[in-house]
Amino acid sequence: MHHLGALRKVRAAILCVMKQARDAAEELSLLRREFSGWSFLISDRGRWWALRTGPHVVSEIVTDTAALLREQLQELHEVEQGR
Predict the structure, then answer these.
(1) Which of 56, 22, 12, 57 is nearest to 42 (CA)?
(2) 24 HSE (CA, 13 A, CB side)
(3) What mean pLDDT comes out for the span 47-61?
(4) Most CB atoms closer than 10 Å: which of 1, 3, 18, 35?
(5) Count of structural domains, the chain
(6) Rounded to the nearest 5°, which phi and psi values hold at 43?
(7) With 90 as the cut, is the pLDDT of residue 78 above it?
(8) Could you give the percent of the chain with pLDDT greater than 90?
């Protein structure tokens, strides 16, 4: 019985990681649609990156969450549009 409990814990942990991966993939997809001039990635340390090439004052943004990355990209967009 002890092994069954350990297996359940492992299964729960795997399911949690899989959900986090699906959520991150969905969030990356949304960011790509919202900010088409940027490329996005999540580092092995869980940092969210937005990168772009070309003659821009800001070419990369790094944050701890997708929500913060989106917020900073929106603010930058407003500044670049002169608002």
Answers:
(1) 22
(2) 17
(3) 92
(4) 35
(5) 1
(6) -75, 170
(7) yes
(8) 63
Give me the domain span that covers residue 28. Answer: 2-80
Extract the tokens encoding 15: 């399911």
Whole-model pTM: value is 0.79
Strands of the 39-42 sheet, one edge to the other: 39-42, 48-51, 60-63
Quick check: 57 pLDDT over 70? yes
Q: How far is CA 37 from CA 1, 40, 66, 83, in A?
A: 54, 10, 17, 19
Neighbours of 30 (CB within 10 A): 13
Q: What letter would DSSP give residue 35?
A: -
51, 59 in Cβ contact below 8 A?
Answer: yes
- Residues 63, 68, 70: CA angle, nearest 5 degrees: 105
